[in-house]
Design brief:
7 helices; alpha/beta; 6-stranded parallel β-sheet; about 250 residues; elongated
Length: about 250
């Protein structure tokens, strides 16, 4: 059996480790990170060239099941995967870590998009800790606030005129996030609802400091695609699939 895992997330790597040695596993990484953490099993890096390219790759390599374990905000590849799996007649599962849930003391401002997040900053604070990733930085380019931008790789212009770049990769500790907020005098945090534990300590640190948090909603999983919340659930789903290759 050949399983194609889309994505370089923590959950994708964990799933590849669970399946490696039991079935053939190929993990596909987008190639947006310069030095990605590689999972167990076979790895390919780069895009497929849209839906048709993904269908062709699935057929050429005898893929029996596809698991979309991309970032919760990788909306385009998720919808391409749904269309490609339907066209190639292979089962598809989405692996999505649960989203974050506010608790007592949180000062969350929920918004539907990065554009809405940029518009929500007025009146919330002047020193922004922006953790939405380097690819959406242009959305905030016209904002007058000072920004601390944390990303794995250096972002490209355009970006806000008053920006400090912090290159770092999670997981992050609560003590580290407390220190960061205090040292940079942060008074508002902007984040996507990525879920998971690796970057959640910033939410606790913001709550303790009484800092408002602008949270961007995640896009929905394509309609009709089943969802697993953990790598273990996804591995159990794979175990229920027929092991023989399909004739196409």
């Amino acid at each position: 059996m050949h399983v194609l895992i889309l994505g370089g997330t923590t959950e994708a790597r964990a799933l590849a480790g669970l399946l490696h040695g039991k079935v053939r596993v190929t993990s596909s990484l987008a190639g947006r990170v310069a030095s990605p953490r590689l999972p167990a099993g076979e790895v390919r890096i780069g895009g497929f060239g849209g839906v048709d390219g993904l269908v062709a790759w699935v057929r050429e390599h005898g893929v029996d099941a596809v698991i979309d374990a991309t970032h919760p905000f990788a909306e385009r590849i998720s919808f391409n995967a749904a269309r490609a799996a339907a066209t190639a007649h292979v089962p598809l599962l989405a692996l999505r870590r649960p989203g974050w849930v506010p608790v007592d003391g949180d000062r969350w401002v929920s918004v539907p998009s990065l554009d809405a997040a940029a518009g929500a900053l007025d009146g919330l604070g002047d020193r922004v800790f922006l953790t939405t990733g380097r690819l959406g930085l242009a959305t905030f380019a016209a904002c007058p606030q000072w920004f601390l931008v944390r990303s794995v790789d250096a972002p490209d212009a355009p970006m806000p005129a008053r920006t400090e770049i912090l290159l770092d990769r999670g997981p992050f500790t609560l003590d580290g996030e407390r220190d960061l907020l205090a040292r940079h005098r942060i008074d508002v945090l902007v984040t996507k609802d990525s879920g998971g534990a690796a970057t959640a300590p910033k939410l606790t640190a913001a709550r303790e400091a009484g800092i408002p948090v602008v949270v961007v909603h995640r896009p929905p999983v394509p309609e009709g695609v089943p969802v697993a919340a953990t790598p273990e659930e996804a591995a159990a789903w794979v175990a229920t699939r027929p092991g023989e290759s399909r004739v196409r």
